[in-house]
Amino acid sequence: MTMDKSVVSASLLCKIYQINDINIEALKDVNLKVEKGEFIGISGPSGAGKTTLLNIIGGIDRPTSGKIIVFGHDLSVEDEDFLADFRCNNVGFVFQSYNLVSTLSVSENIAFPMEWARKPEDYIENRVEELLRIVGLEHRADHFSFQLSGGEQQRVAFARALANDPPLLLVDEPTGNLDVKTGLKIVQILRKLKDDGKTIIVATHDERITRLADQKLYLEDGKLVSLDE
Fold first, then answer.
1. pLDDT for 88-126, tens place per residue?
2. How is the chain split into domains, by residue range?
3. CATH tag, 3-226
4. Deepest of 60, 114, 142, 195, by most Cβ within 10 A of its Cβ?
5. CA distance 88 to 112
């Protein structure tokens, strides 16, 4: 397998956070290959490094050492301007805490990434309507995040992540704060995205999600192992 066929190629990835005089190793020599159209499920205890790994893959954070190649770009050496454009056009994030902009309506939150990418207004309007249909929130278009349930906020977060139709979707504990019934709607969205051929990496404790995965990985104390071997 050659590197240029991989959406993500991480090699000997390490991340150390320094808090006062203490070094905390969040990731230790992580190796990972993700092919186009693969669904990757990463499980592991809280604090194991799952969010750190997603942030490094998405160019939000940088590794202390090692390489992270995403769509042929070594993100560890690129500047912030490049990374901002790269994220906007290539990566969709669904954060555990939703990260919706409280002063924007549902439609405005979904439109924001497309406005950043300077898409035409009519395109944005049509795409917002399409995404609201996909996540089943047409009736919430003009509402604000404080008027939504946790599950509805999570679905808005999915719609926003998909706004620019990114080839890679990174999802952090999407059902962690939801009840069983509401979480099922998120699982159904992920299943549809998988069927559509989207490349997806999900950090999750939810077995309903890990059952969808082509690769099942486990992260503990910063070390990544395969559960498929």
1. 889 999 988 888 999 999 999 999 999 988 999 999 999
2. 3-226
3. 3.40.50.300
4. 114
5. 10
